TrEMBL record:
Gene source species: Choiromyces venosus 120613-1
Name of this chain's protein: AAA-ATPase-like domain-containing protein
Residues of the AAA-ATPase-like domain: 36-255
Length: 257
């Protein structure tokens, strides 16, 4: 049923939820949100929300061993929330919050059995649905470049305590505001260099001692291209700076794998 607050509610049957992936705090839940909640940490912190537990796929995805994984699911399926869940599991900055975020979820059993380990990556996130729409391909290219640069700056904001120097120093020194692809490649080099130094230093208590590398999450990976590609007239897109930027981005990512 629906109520005036824009939430959907339903009777919950305990005997049925035992075999379900639905996780419910039965003493505090009030409703199922109709609006999109795609931040895993906020969802888990709010006991009014139920959660369909997809964390068993952390081990499944990890065991595949592929360098690149592609999620293809219908709209409103929960792809963004799944990416947020992966971010909070794998991100080294979230390691201390593992218990409050993942206790009693499926992945917790995999962790206890040493099948998968939380907090072993630096998370680099992109969301290409956030690029401002425009009819001008040159403006579109600039919008995409700005989107990439912003994601790189957010990465440095999350990890500058581990990488050395202040946030302002890292951004001013390592990001070229006029070349998003160079700045992305530079970020990868900095992380590789830092992790090698940590490994060679032999300090097992260093916060990056068990970090394997960068875990890249690209939400709405095809949103930008789909906005501008015309199947009936591909030449304008193929000749544009926007197309070159997309190709350069994924070529750089391919080198990371």
């Amino acid at each position: 049923t629906a109520n005036a607050r824009g939430l959907s509610t339903a009777r919950l049957l305990p005997q049925k939820q035992q075999k379900s992936s639905l996780r419910i705090a039965s003493d505090t839940i009030q409703a199922f949100p109709r609006c999109s909640v795609s931040n895993f940490s906020k969802l888990r912190a709010n006991k009014r929300f139920a959660y369909f537990d997809r964390t068993k796929y952390v081990f499944v995805l990890d065991s595949i061993g592929a360098g690149v994984l592609l999620f293809l699911r219908p709209r409103r399926f929960g792809k963004s929330l799944t990416l947020s869940m992966l971010e909070h599991f794998h991100g080294v900055q979230h390691r201390a919050q593992y218990g409050e975020l993942f206790k009693d979820l499926d992945v917790d059993q995999d962790v206890k059995q040493n099948r998968v380990t939380p907090g072993q990556y630096l998370i680099l996130k992109f969301n290409f649905a956030k690029v401002r729409r425009t009819r001008d391909l040159n403006e579109a290219a600039q919008g995409l470049a700005n989107n990439i640069i912003q994601s790189l700056e957010e990465f440095y904001g999350d990890y500058y305590p581990y990488l050395g120097g202040s946030l302002d120093q890292l951004i001013s020194k390592e990001i070229n505001q006029g070349d998003a692809i160079y700045s992305l490649a530079n970020l990868v080099d900095i992380v590789d260099h830092t992790l090698r130094e940590v490994k060679n230093g032999g300090d097992k208590k260093h916060p990056l001692a068990n970090v394997k590398g960068i875990y890249l999450l690209a939400d709405e990976y095809d949103a930008f291209s789909n906005e501008y590609m015309d199947p009936h007239n591909s030449q304008p897109w193929a000749a544009s700076a926007a197309s070159s930027l997309v190709k350069g981005f994924w070529a750089t990512v391919k080198e990371m794998v």
